[in-house]
Design goal:
Largest sheet: 5 strands, mixed
CATH class of the largest domain: Alpha Beta
CATH topology of the largest domain: Heat Shock Protein 90
Shape: elongated
Distance between the termini: 83 Å
Number of strands: 7
Radius of gyration: 31 Å
Helix content: 55-70%
Strand content: 15-25%
Length: about 300
């Protein structure tokens, strides 16, 4: 009987000691968390209790700390990107707007002749169109980014759409006196896509080509397994390959200049639309030629 009582007392003492130890460890972890939250430290919680469940709790807490760090880092990146976007957008708005106001002021001068006023009006109109194009592109990109943006995926003839776009821009290519090479099959190549988005992507790529190509352009359509690829290549000997990954960034220009060639949104819009249609767009350099490749899902009858 005495032995049983002693055994029970020892068990109670052991349980009480363990309880106090666990409570002490909980207070220790709580204090660590308070310090981490208060001082915004990146420290991990350390657990001194040799208990599997308690160690598991410590690992879970540390995972949450890691997630918080990732979220905060992502927030900082987003804030920097937003600030840069606002700065770039402000510049792209201010440049043509300042030009429009300047030429309108020239028109108001009494000394200006009718011929000069007509010239100033034409220039102001051109600058206003640049401003309109930028605002339209930015609005389009903001729409595409929204979760509510809807597209209608259907069977589309990519070969026909490309040929029609090239016919529409034929005179512009002639004016540039570019060396053109076409590798477009006569047969129809059907893809899965949204009609408006498809035409926008092709138009953006051709606009980019007309703005930045110096001499040579190669346009081709190919099929590979479940894909139809549209590739547009142009000479770009002066382009630095380390900048390629930034081509789809908003407001980015290869020459890093804030010229009136555009706001640098065309390729960003194209990438967003390609992703919406379940496709992809890539960029590479091959033998001093800048190659932009759009990969569309091939349409197959069910």
């Amino acid at each position: 009987m005495i032995f049983l009582i002693i055994t029970l007392c020892l068990a109670v003492i052991i349980l009480l000691a363990r309880h106090l130890y666990i409570k002490h460890e909980i207070l220790n972890v709580t204090k660590q968390l308070e310090e981490i939250n208060k001082n915004k430290w990146d420290n991990k919680v350390t657990v001194g209790l040799l208990d599997k469940d308690f160690e598991k709790l410590g690992r879970a807490i540390n995972e949450i700390i890691d997630l918080r760090k990732q979220c905060e880092a992502g927030k900082l990146r987003s804030e920097r990107a937003l600030k840069n976007a606002i700065a770039d957008m402000s510049h792209d708005l201010r440049t043509p707007l300042t030009s429009v106001i300047g030429y309108l002021q020239f028109m108001k001068k009494v000394s200006s002749t009718a011929e000069e006023k007509a010239q100033y009006l034409d220039i102001a109109y051109e600058r206003a169109k640049v401003l309109e194009e930028f605002l339209n592109d930015f609005y389009t990109l903001s729409l595409i980014d929204s979760a509510e943006y809807e597209i209608n995926l259907e069977r589309l003839d990519l070969s026909r759409a490309l040929k029609e776009a090239l016919v529409d821009r034929h005179n512009e290519f002639l004016e540039r006196k570019l060396e053109m090479t076409f590798q477009i099959p006569d047969k129809s190549l059907y893809v899965i896509g949204d009609k408006q988005s498809l035409h926008r992507v092709i138009g953006n790529l051709l606009n980019n080509t007309l703005k930045y190509t110096k001499n040579r352009v190669v346009i081709s359509l190919n099929t590979e397994k479940d894909l139809v690829t549209l590739e547009i290549s142009n000479d770009a000997a002066d382009l630095k390959t380390e900048n390629l990954e930034r081509f789809f960034d908003r407001f980015y220009r290869a020459d890093n200049s804030r010229s009136e060639k555009g706001a640098g949104l065309g390729l960003a819009i194209s990438k967003a639309l390609m992703e919406k249609m379940g496709g992809d767009i890539e960029i590479s350099m091959v033998s001093n030629m800048l190659n932009i490749c759009c990969k569309f899902k091939k349409y197959r009858k069910i």
